[in-house]
Amino acid sequence: MNCLLLPASNIVESTAYIDDPKQIAHIHQVLKAKVGDRLKVGQLDGNIGSGVIDSMTADLVQLKEVVLSITPPLKLEVTVILALPRPKVLRRLIIDMTAIGVRDIILINSYRTQKSYWQSPMIHRLDEFITEGLQQSVDTVAPSITLKKLFKPFVEDELPSFIEHGAIVAHPYSVCSLTEYFRPLKEHDSHRATVSQKKNFPDIVFIGAEGGWIDYEIELLKANGCTAVHCGPRILRTEAAVNVILGQWLL
Question: How many helices (H) and strands (E) does the chain have?
Answer without folding.
Answer: 8, 13
